[in-house]
Amino acid sequence: MAERWPLVGNLPAYMRDPIGFLCATRDRYGDVARVTLGPLEAVLVSHPSLVEEILVTHNRRWKKDQFLQTLRPVLGDGLLSSEGDFWRRQRRLAQPAFHRDRIASYADIMVDYALALAARWRDGETRDVHRDMMHLTLDIVAKTLFGADVGEHADDVGEALETVLNFTVDPTYLLLPFLRGLPTPAIRRFEAAVAKLDAVIYGVIERKRKNKSETESKDLLSMLLQAVDEDGSSMSDKQLRDECMTLFLAGHETTALALSWTWHLLTVNPEVDAELAKELSTVLGDRRPSLADVPKLKYTANVIAESLRVFPPAWSTGREACEDIELGGFHIPRGSQVWFCPWVIQRDPRFFEAPERFMPERWSGDLQKSLPRYAYFPFGGGPRLCIGQAFAQMEAVLLLATLAQGFRVEVLHPPIPDPTVTLRPKKGLLSCVTRRAQQAG
Question: Please, how many CA atoms are within 13 Å of residue 83, restricted to the half-sphere of its CB?
Answer without folding.
Answer: 14
